[in-house]
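Continuing the batch. This is chain 6 of the set; chains 1 through 5 are on the previous pages. Same settings as before, nothing changed between runs. Recording input and output for traceability.
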Amino acid sequence: MSGTLIALVIQIIAGIVGGHAAGQMRNFDLGTVGNTIAGAIGGAGGGQLLGLLAPALAGTAAGGFDLSALAGQLVGGGAGGAILTAIVGALKNMSGQRA
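Output for chain 6:
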């Protein structure tokens, strides 16, 4: 697998974890499937955005494993997943729909 694809998979997994963490708050819960989908999308978007803003965190070192890049992908993906899940959950809650 290429480094870019590995980074994207890490960001999506971290986003799912972040989405489920944000969904634990009552006002932001979208259900299991909703938290997973919003977290995955937010994780991919947040991780990619962080990679654009801080290029050192975008990928792995040539021919080796870069722990700082992995940490950046985990943080960017997890935060992006949590933020998007919280935003969508808050909008859903404001519209009057209950889960």
